[in-house]
Amino acid sequence: QVQLVESGGGLVQAGGSLRLSCAASGLDFSSYNMGWFRQAPGKEREFVARITGSGGSTYYADSVKGRFTISRGNAKNTLYLQMNSLKPEDTGVYCCAARLGIAGPWRYWGQGTLVTVSS
Questions:
Q1: pLDDT of residue 118
Q2: Would residue 5 be called left, alpha or beta, if left means φ above 0 and alpha means ψ between -120 and 50 degrees?
Q3: Degrees to nearest 5, angle at CA 110 with 40 and 80
Q4: pLDDT per position as a tens digit, 54-112
Q5: Which residues pair with 65 in a beta bridge?
Q6: Do the beta carbons of residue 113 and residue 7 sit within 8 Å?
């Protein structure tokens, strides 16, 4: 059974930082491309960042480029999202997701962790 469990969310002031983690189990972690998504209250879920299985390639949404960094520790089966210079508009539930290919539907999803950025 595949499980993705996020942690690290919380309340932070604008300009602050948070580091999210996504612990994966039940899958060959290094074979999966991983991504972070977020959903703000009353809005649709949106893509934040993704990383290939080896960690050699990353891609970011324009809204977070230069502020967020996605990384992974394959030995620990863990995905990370370092978030700096946080803005109130970064508020939302952050979820990690996994898929085998570099395109197509994301197969596995976590439940999410709430990030709240106060102004």
A1: 97
A2: beta
A3: 85
A4: 999 999 999 999 999 999 999 999 999 999 999 999 999 999 999 998 888 999 999 99
A5: none
A6: yes
Residue 75 sits at φ, ψ, to 5 deg, of -70, -25
pLDDT in tens, 15-34: 999 999 999 999 999 999 99
Asked if residue 109 lies in contact with residue 117, where contact means CB atoms within 8 angstroms, the answer is: no
Cβ-in-10-Å burial (0-12, 13-18, 19+) of 103 comes to exposed
* Polymer length in residues for the chain: 119
Pairing between β-strand 18-25 and β-strand 78-83 as defined by DSSP bridges: antiparallel
What integer pLDDT is reported at residue 102 of this predicted model? Answer: 82
Q: What is the 3-state secondary structure (H, E, C) of the chain?
A: CCEEEEECCEEEECCCCEEEEEEEECCCHHHCEEEEEEECCCCCCEEEEEECCCCCCEEECCCCCCCEEEEEEHHHCEEEEEECCCCHHHCEEEEEEEECCCCCCCCEECCCEEEEEEC
Cα(19)–Cα(54) distance, rounded to whole angstroms? 20
